[in-house]
Amino acid sequence: MSNFYETLGVSRTATPEEIKRAYRKLARETHPDVAGEASAERFKEVSRAYEVLSDPEKRQLYDMGGEQALNGGRSGGAGANFGFSDIFETFFGGTTRSSGPVPRGRRGQDAIVTIDITLEEAVFGAKRDITVNTAVTCPACQGSCCRPGTSPETCSACQGRGSVQRVANSFLGQIMTTSPCGVCRGHGTIIQDPCPECSGDGRVRSRRTINIDIPAGVESGNRMRMPGYGEVGPGNGPAGDLHVEFKVADHPIFSRQGDDLVCSVSVPATAAALGTTITLETLDGPREITLKAGTQPGDVHSIRGLGATRIHRGTRGDVKVFVDVTVPKKLSDREKELMRELAELRGEEHPEIKPGTGIFSRLKEKMGL
């Protein structure tokens, strides 16, 4: 049993291009029209080897189980399924196959548009009308590409087939080849009177308003694909897709961190020491937050379930409120007197620095350092 790689004189790791070059060389040397009938059997072996090794699926089967693995374990005859069309394509890059007229309609391009949305729209979702400049079906010819009242005419060169045949002479003999018609460009019809509105393209540029549903939970940079809302293709071909990219505007109170909405509140030192209640305007309306007596700078208060929506899940994160305690920079004489009395009562006239008790230490604990 012959080894196909040895037959072509290539290694098992040979690239498709190396296999093709080797076959071209051997086919010229062994073809009966060139080397005589004595080389016919050799030419069949070369053709059979090329048929298998040039086909990725057949080559994989051959590499796994040899020739027996092909055709359900039956080795085919030399040159099986290998005709003049394959030889011509190998040598001349042409084809003998015809696929019929080429449709004028082609798929349109995808389009992308970026829209600005508010944090509220990002969290809760919303409906929005957007306007895009895109290609739409020509209203005059309805995509036919012809002047209204006219229609495409059958190409006289190819008789509507979209392709023409010709005979090519080679050392292998005469080969019938098929190629796209140069008159109608393979369409099989000719537009003698193009639509003046779209110049025969079947589409025009126009501004189009589209209603979109902004999904709850989107973030800046997220994109939503809308199939069929892109540009209409030439010849009234199917439309491409529209990709909507979102850009969330800054909010005066909240910033987003993952699924949470984060903000900070400043409270006077007296309120932090004595405790107080503050009202925070959340995206769901006002909520009261109670600060206990002795609240420290950097303390965090959470309001569960009022944060950002988790996209495609519907649940929401939390609102996290960071407390910033403010210390007055200017005091009246009376305020200074009262502060001194308080310091004296608390024994804090001459405070001592104690390691591990400051704000930086608390931050380290929260960060796990």
Question: Mind explaining what this structure looks like?
Answer:
- This protein has helices at residues 4-8, 16-30, 32-35, 40-53, 56-65, 84-92, 119-124, 269-274, 333-346, 359-367, and strands at residues 111-117, 126-137, 153-154, 163-170, 173-180, 189-190, 203-214, 223-226, 242-248, 255-257, 260-268, 276-282, 285-291, 300-303, 319-326.
- The protein folds into three domains: 4-82, Helix Hairpins (Orthogonal Bundle), CATH 1.10.287; 96-249, Urease metallochaperone UreE, N-terminal domain (HSP40/DNAj peptide-binding domain), CATH 2.60.260; 255-367, Sandwich (HSP40/DNAj peptide-binding domain), CATH 2.60.260.20.
- The chain contains ten helices and 15 strands.
- Strand 12 and strand 13 form a beta hairpin.
- The strands form six sheets. Strands 10-11-15-14 form a four-stranded mixed β-sheet. The chain has a three-stranded mixed β-sheet with strand order 1-9-8.
- Helix 2 packs antiparallel against helix 4 (40-53).
- By secondary structure, it is an alpha+beta fold.
CATH architecture classification name of the largest domain: Sandwich
- CATH homologous superfamily of the largest domain, by name? Urease metallochaperone UreE, N-terminal domain
Distance between the termini: 72 Å
* Mean pLDDT score: 84
* % residues in beta strands: 25-35%
| Overall shape | elongated
* Biggest pleated sheet: 4 strands, mixed
